[in-house]
Amino acid sequence: MPFPELISAPEEQWDRLFAPSSCLTTITTVDGEGRVNAASFGTCTRVCHDPVSLAFAVGVGKDTCENVLATGEFVVNVPSFERRQLEQVRIAGLNFDPGVSELEPAGLTAVPSTRVAPPRIADFGRHFECTVEWTRRWRDRLLVVGLVRAASYAPGIADESGYLCWERARPAHFCGWPYEDAFVAAYEVMRIDMVHDGPEAGAGERPAPPVR
Questions:
Q1: How many whole angstroms separate alpha carbon 209 and alpha carbon 16?
Q2: Of 47, 147, 174, 177, most Cβ neighbours within 10 A?
Q3: What b/e string do you get for 14-30 counting C-beta neighbours within 10 Å, with b at 16 or more?
Q4: Regions of the chain with pLDDT less than 70
Q5: Residue 92 to residues 108, 165, 189, 195: CA-CA distances in angstroms?
Q6: Bond preceding residue 51 cis, omega within 30 of 0
Q7: Can you give the three-state secondary structure of 29-73, one letter per residue?
């Protein structure tokens, strides 16, 4: 099945497009020979709004770790809370041999990125092309912070202003390692009015974006 052409998001929309602030993702990288690797991460977090920056932690020695250190590039692909996509996320999270692309066994389709060498995953609705801003190793983990260089999304995922259409984007969370195979939906929106009436209440308040 052919995929619709992805929509490139202008820079002022990137922060809106990465929502909620921490997402279930599959991150693509390439090694020094250009071989593609895909790995799933239960936690990828937006750590800065301007410039939009995303962070994740990976085990030292993993393909993603080695590739990020070698090339300084990665792509964050955000799946939806749909059974087939979550099945693909689980397959991409398996420990395949080094140099083996997880895309094929997971049934995922790569499409070229616009600013970096690692590809985007066409099957998933949102994509953030990143260059490494800094890394820090502690214990057996490498914390990676990347600067978003380009973002794109599938038609219908967001409106013309870059705000998510939540029932179409259908973000998901991984319940965590102790739960092994459990995911939860993260797209039910509840607006909470400010009930505090002190002088602090108005500071930093912005008009509420539309709920689609």
A1: 10
A2: 174
A3: bbbbbbeebbbbbbbbb
A4: 1, 203-208, 210-212
A5: 9, 26, 29, 44
A6: yes
A7: EECCCCCEEEEEEEEEEEEEECCEEEEEEEECCCHHHHHHHHHCE
**Domain range for 31:** 7-202
pLDDT value, residue 167: 96
Q: Is 207 contained in some domain?
A: no
Peptide bond into 20 cis (omega under 30): yes
Q: Which residues pair with 153 in a beta bridge?
A: 7, 126
Of 174, 192, 176, nearest to 184 by C-alpha is 174
Q: Is residue 211 part of a domain?
A: no
Question: What is the CATH classification number for the domain harbouring 23?
Answer: 2.30.110.10
Q: What share of the chain is helix, strand, coil (3-state, %, to 5)?
A: 20, 35, 45
Residue 71: both structure tokens together: 């090339």
Structure confidence at residue 194 (pLDDT): 87
77 lies in some domain: yes
* 130 neighbors 117 (Cβ within 8 angstroms): no
Write down the residue that tokens 């969370």 correspond to.
173
Please indicate, yes or no, if residue 209 is contained in any of the structural domains.
Answer: no
Q: Return the pLDDT at 112.
A: 98
Domains: count for the chain: 1
